[in-house]
Amino acid sequence: xxxxxxxxxxxxxxxxxxxxxxxxxxxxxxxxxxxxxxxxxxxxxxxxxxxxxxxxxxxxxxxxxxxxxxxxxxxxxxxxxxxxxxxxxxxxxxxxxxxxxxxxxxxxxxxxxxxxxxxxxxxxxxxxxxxxxxxxxxxxxxxxxxxxxxxxxxxxxxxxxxxxxxxxxxxxxxxxxxxxxxxxxxxxxxxxxxxxxxxxxxxxxxxxxxxxxxxxxxxxxxxxxxxxxxxxxxxxxxxxxxxxxxxxxxxxxxxxxxxxxxxxxxxxxxxxxxxxxxxxxxxxxxxxxxxxxxxxxxxxxxxxxxxxxxxxxxxxxxxxxxxxxxxxxxxxxxxxxxxxx
Length: 341
Known about the structure:
By secondary structure, the chain is mainly beta. The protein has one helix spanning 334-338; strands at residues 5-10, 13-18, 26-31, 42-49, 55-64, 72-78, 80-81, 88-89, 107-109, 112-118, 124-125, 130-135, 142-149, 162-168, 174-183, 186-187, 192-200, 208-215, 220-230, 236-244, 253-254, 266-274, 282-283, 294-301, 311-314. The strands form 5 sheets. Strands 3, 5, 11, 12, 14, 15, 18, 21, 24 and 25 form a 10-stranded mixed sheet that branches. Strands 1, 2, 4, 6, 8, 10 and 13 form a 7-stranded mixed sheet that branches. The chain is globular.
């Protein structure tokens, strides 16, 4: 490690200025600017603008947060941030009129997730020669850190949680991307419900997955993700990319099957949710007593740029299931997808 960097404020936008010309790996601290969550379910965002005439390659992430303070955090790559304020309320549905902060989404244009963290997950190091390209030559001109604080802080308390970005200016031969598979929907009480999503690779690119992450709130029991390849006879072959109890640390884990995913293949995810002790419906949303169903895939491409597709989101239950006729799926691994065996 080594080299130094400084932060300069231009307007209300933080700009990374690289002081040394070295191509060695460096760290950049992306942190909340001592914010005060004045109510439960606060979502704050803070931006960093990337030097516009340089390319940087992010090769690792070191969280500087703990689950007793932070519910979860996400790093977005944006063409434009939601605002140019030092920080803002980016809770969307969680926002209410009591906040004096400006309200906006994390990104105003070109939103894509490049990192997510929860439940005291450990640092992530990308494979050799793999990096997220940001800055010149990309649509990512800003990095935006979003943090969800589920509980109001006491008076005179503040927080600067976040992470260190591990990066280099040396071009990496394999460019990384993230796909987020998720659902909307509602979970009925006293039931075990499958929340499922499905999408097809429609770009003529080959991706190589190498890490996955699961995320739900309290009702999640198993989250699984698959690539689905149809052979010439019409049979679907489901390759397990990852499967995990989402109540364990929500870090990125090595992918189960690192085989290539090509044009025409499909990606599928299922969250098995247990609401047998609930007496009311649970809807998908940002609050800790809502639910989420997310399966993240980090991949790289050996040629060209990552997929333009960043998200694969379904309506979820009671409208969307793998077995819907219009999805035309067969050989569905029902038992495997919902058990940890």
